[in-house]
Amino acid sequence: MDIEIILLDKSHIPKVISLIAGYLNSSSNGVDESDPSPDQLEQCEQILNRFINDSSAYCYLAKQEHEYIGFIILSWSFSISKGSPVLRIEALYSSSKHRKKGVGRKLMEHAIDLAISNKAARLQLETDDDNAPARTLYKQLGFKMLEGKGVYMSFL
Fold first, then answer.
1. How far is Cα 65 from Cα 49, in angstroms, rounded to an integer?
2. Cα dihedral sign for 83, 85, 90, 94?
3. What does the pLDDT look like over 46-99, one tens digit per residue?
4. What span, in angstroms and rounded, lies between the C-alpha atoms of 101 and 64?
5. Global pTM?
6. Of 44, 71, 85, 144, whose CA is between 20 and 30 Å from 12?
């Protein structure tokens, strides 16, 4: 069955709230931990509405027939040292019943194609150390772990 990749727009929000909840309720090892509560579904709708109104990132949805089965969130930055754009993968998720069926790969390939077509210097991402399924996929797609690079964050 074919997987179509489409850009999120406002009309998709009611249909993809459960995907966002699934992402929020999944552990770093790819296991969904709980079903979303009504309050959490409402929070996910609010998150998606804020996202739609923010121009700093893009969400692409994986759709199979009439069902949304995954998403990838991408944002652009710029490498001064390379003089070219950089595409960052901020989040990648496929619904639990569609894992190991090529959804994540299809979304990643879409990101790779976007990076190449926009002449990006690189495509970069971060993942948890214990997320073995994601790390395996990234290695299969040619991503390299950069030794000596750390992630620093300031939570505001």
1. 24
2. negative
3. 999 999 999 999 999 999 999 999 999 999 999 999 999 999 999 999 998 999
4. 11
5. 0.90
6. 85
- Measured between alpha carbons, how far is 33 from 59 in angstroms, rounded to an integer? 23
Which residues 6+ apart lie within 8 Å of 102 measured at CB?
3
Q: What is the residue whose two structure tokens read 């399924």?
A: 133
With 0-12 / 13-18 / 19 or more C-beta atoms within 10 angstroms meaning exposed / middle / buried, residue 80 is exposed
SS (H, E, C) the chain: CCCEEEECCHHHHHHHHHHHHHHHCECCCCCECCCCCHHHHHHHHHHHHHHHCCCCEEEEEEEECCEEEEEEEEEEEEECCCCEEEEEEEEEEECHHHCCCCHHHHHHHHHHHHHHHCCCCEEEECCCCCCHHHHHHHHHCCCCCCCCCCCCCCCC
Tens digit of each residue's pLDDT (9 = 90 or more) over 94-119 = 998 999 999 999 999 999 999 999 99
Could you say which DSSP state residue 12 is in?
Answer: G
As a whole number of angstroms, the distance between CA 131 and CA 147 comes to: 18
Residue 129: both structure tokens together = 């150390």
The secondary structure element, H or E, covering residue 61 is strand 57-64
